[in-house]
Amino acid sequence: VSALALLALLVLPVLPGPATAAELPVIRERLDNGFTLLVRENPTAPVVAVSLFVRMGVRWETRENAGISNLLQAVIVKGTTRHSGGQIAEMIAGLGGKMSAAGDVDYSEIRGTALARFWRELLGLTAELALEPALAQGDVEVERDDLVTSIQKRRDNPTTRAFDTFFATLYGPHPYGLPNLGTPGSLARIDHAAIVAWYRAFYRPERMVLALSGQAPAGEVVAEIKRLFGGATGSGNDRPEPVLPRVAPASRRIVVEQPAQQAQILMGSLAPRVEDRDYAAVKVLSTVLGGGLAGRLFVELRDKRGLAYTAASYDDPLKDPGSLVLYLGTAPKNAVRAEQALAREIARIRSQPVGAAELERAKAYLLGSFAMDRRTNARQAWYLGFYESLGVGYDFPTGYRRAVEAVTVADVLRVAKTYLKPLTTVVLRPSKSR
Amino acid sequence: MRALRSLLLALLVLALDATAGAGQGLQRPERQVLPNGVVLIVQEHRASDAVALQLWLKVGGRDEATDELGLSHYLEHMLFKGTPTRPPGAIDRFVEGVGGQSNAYTSYDITHFDVLLPAGQVAAGIELLADIAVNASFDPKELDRERKVVLEEVRLVEDDPQQYLMRRLTELGFDATPYGRPILGTPKFIQALTREQLSRYYKKRYVPQNMVLVVVGAIDPAAVRPIVDRTFGRLTGEALPRPPIPPQPALTGGRTVDVPRPEKQAYLGLAWRAPSTSEPDVFAVDLMTNILGDQPTSRLPVVVRDTEGLVSQIKAGYLTRERGGLVVVTARLDAENLEAAEASVRNVIRRLQEDGVSEAERQRAIITIEASYAFDIETAEGLAEVYGQAETTSSLEEELNYLPRLRQVTAAEIQAAAKKYLTSDYARVRFRPEGAR
Fold this sequence. Notes:
heterodimer, A: alpha+beta, five-stranded mixed β-sheet, 15 helices, 43% helix, B: alpha+beta, six-stranded mixed β-sheet, globular
């Protein structure tokens, strides 16, 4: 055990007044087999949350097997070599908890919550699902059918349909353009053997990060995680990173028609990666435009002109180029004017510097919402595990906060000119059938 | 959709007892009534550096006359729009300028306004809520702009099959009571609504005795009352009695509505008359609903979805109102399974009525409700919400006994509730795909 050379990192920020939960210390250890654990003890409420991240997702997929990570995640929680899916579900319900799993772009996650007094059982179940899944053939069939239904539902929903179309158009051949859920065609091609092979390739300790936050004794939690995951064997031969095609953005406009009450308008472009120097400035830019009720799109297009019901911006943090999407939901009769007005707002922010007060509002909103999003243990566990698995470290928020505070008016103008071009536009408008 | 939020207060008391020796325990909420009738509830809570400030009004859809449906909701939209000292946009700029969030919603029994702010902004936040509570400007330009927004919101509900299903189902299930009316109102009324109508309703209903202020967060409770005294404490006005609510229909003989919809999937909604928040059966019905379909391992998902494969999604919920209630079952499915799925739901109910529930199921349901509470009180606003809901639609005191009472419910009582409420007299709404596209 002494040879483990564990690195325990304790962060104790110096702050006035009684500590709030997000300021509590975190224990980080990387085990000999490459497995990383993060534990934050939080006494606020009698609950506990766990997130197990695996570096597996759309990023490693192709058009042929799109959706395989998410399908594996759906199957993995359906039973283990020791317990059936029904038994697992019963066990989770008995903890007053929830568990679920899904595949995302740069990672896949098994997440769970429980009443705090069941923290040990929650960790045990998480380990059992991740390390001893049954991956039964029948479950693959059932989950695939279920996912095909979900894909249909996404297509029926005007907003998700519009976003999926946008990402496919923006990213082209890059895997980020693939839908997380895959397509009915790609799912049909994924058989049981492919699922087992995908599991073996990615579920390795060196690709895993486990984060826990909640009302549980940190020392005992760390010991239990080591007992559960320390014996998992890594191959020492991690899968090489795929060589991904470069994204070549171009000015494009796509129109989709489908039955709906609202029209959807999306306009945007590529944005920097999380670790890039410009990341914080683009977050501020995104906030000036679409950050909540005081963002420009909301004030100018919704409040002042009544041209939209929803007006917001989206910018997912990603390993490869992210995207900045400006989004309007509007009445069909206003769609043309709303699109023109949105284009004018983009032209304005690319040519005129934002006001100093507007910049300060955007920063306060951005940092405030970031803090607000970490109010629950589930979100705290997610944030810890997410940044760690992305490779920027669980304490990324500390540096990020400083970077946001340092963003200037000139920075915003510069990144607006750099990143808000060329523009991809997707318009979803109601078809004539109703 | 979820069962009584307010019941959770009882669990809070248990949690307080459990943590009392740990030195980290929460304080009991302080409840005070100001001389003018405003109720103040305060509690320290350090989950994050935030304070939740919530203004609850005992005003909602049930207070509207039949020719003014949607007035409460429209009014709710206008309050954050400005007062004489806060021009349009100023409130949003303040709240977001400090990194906070604001929200508001309207139900049949209450109207709710909240801001979530950095804890240092507690005084500014209380001043803001007291200002909008009585000084809203109803700027004519803002009023007209908001009209488009509200109309859009009506359309949005119609676009979303799940939301629209609930609307049609409650309309059918609550029938002629105010709880069956569209809370957003009718487009016709919204188009014609005037500033005078809004202002008259506001002056009549937004009075101190209808107000509850809840303050929960990283604050010193002793510092709150003086701020409230110099703001809410100065408000005047007398509350009028609320309009009477006719008895909820028994749905004798059943009711059905079929709706053609653009979605490719069909939707099924069933609703039974159920007890209101003040009736003693509420405990047994809460547990019964949970056992039927509040979670993935409940009977309906296990039988109708997993075993028989008739639906892709199914759940049960208990809608409680101060003077009414419905147990609802909703499902998403392929249109050809509509009849078979409904028959299967009725079978599951029949088994519950004939064979009752196991002790394990009963225990599970109680743990689920306890957990639901525990996750609610994780956040300052969640805890404030529990307090505000209890104070406005039942009472803080009543709720303190909820969990002990819930734990006393026997398996036989749950079975009896199933027999009493889940009868063949129910409302049914079906959404059918409107042909191939």
